[in-house]
Amino acid sequence: MPEVEPTFSAPPRLLVSVRGPDEALTALQAGADLIDAKDPERGALGALPPETVRAIAACIGDRAVTSAVAGDGTGTAIAAAVAVIAATGVDFIKIAVGSADEAALAQAAARAPGRVIGVLFAEDGVAPDIPARLAAAGFRGAMIDTRGKAGIALPALLAAPQLTAFVAACRTHGLMSGLAGSLTLADIPALAGLAPDYLGFRGGLCQGGNRRQALDGARVAQAVDALRTCHRADAA
Ligand SMILES: O=C[C@H](O)COP(=O)(O)O
C-alpha cells in the first residue's frame, strides 16, 4: 500500500471516483492520489460488481491508493457489504454509516481491520461525536459526501466552521478525513484550506460536469495542479 498516513502538513490528496479500469488509469496518469471505485449509475454511493473492483485494484497495483464503495448503508447489513469489497484487494472500503449503532459499526470495521472509511451524508447533518464513535469502533477514516447529485455541492450544505470541526475531530481521533460532494475545481482553494486528508471528486472532473459521463483526464490534472498550487501558496 502506497504512503497513506495523513501528514497534516501536506496538502489534501485528490480522491477520484471511477467506474472501471480505463477510468482508473486515466485518473492515475493524471496524478490522482486515490482511485475510488464507485458506480455513478447507482446513486451517491453505489457499489460496483466485485469483479470490476478487483480489476481496478489489479490495474492500479501499488501505484496509487485504492478504495471502493461497499454501499449506501441501506438494505443488507453494512458488515456483509464491507466483507465483499474487502476481498477484492482494494486498500480501503467506504460504507455509509447512516444510523448504524455501535455494534453494527464495530462489526463492519472488524471485517476489514484498519481499512474501513465511514461515509456521512451532508444532508443528514454531521453529529459532533461521529468521528469519536467511528474511531472507537475501529474505522480508519471518515468522509462527508452528498446524497443528492443534482449539483448542490457540499459547501452549500455545510458551512466552513462545521467542516473545519469535522476535520479537526477526525485528526483528534486519528482518523483520515475526506470531503466530497459535487465539488468543482472552484471549490478547491477554500476546502483545501480546511486541511482534510482528501478531497473527493467525480462529477466535477467528468465531461460536461456530469458524473455519468466519462472522466476527463485534463480536468483531473487541473485538480491535481490546483491542490499543489494551494499548498505552495500556504507554504510561502
Ligand atoms: O467520493 C467521492 C464523491 O462521491 C464524488 O462524487 P461527486 O463529485 O460526483 O459528488
Automatic annotation (TrEMBL):
<dbReference type="InterPro" id="IPR007565">
    <property type="entry name" value="4HFCP_synth"/>
</dbReference>
<keyword id="KW-0704">Schiff base</keyword>
<dbReference type="Pfam" id="PF04476">
    <property type="entry name" value="4HFCP_synth"/>
</dbReference>
<protein>
    <recommendedName>
        <fullName>(5-formylfuran-3-yl)methyl phosphate synthase</fullName>
        <ecNumber>4.2.3.153</ecNumber>
    </recommendedName>
</protein>
<comment type="function">
    <text>Catalyzes the formation of 4-(hydroxymethyl)-2-furancarboxaldehyde phosphate (4-HFC-P) from two molecules of glyceraldehyde-3-P (GA-3-P).</text>
</comment>
<keyword id="KW-0456">Lyase</keyword>
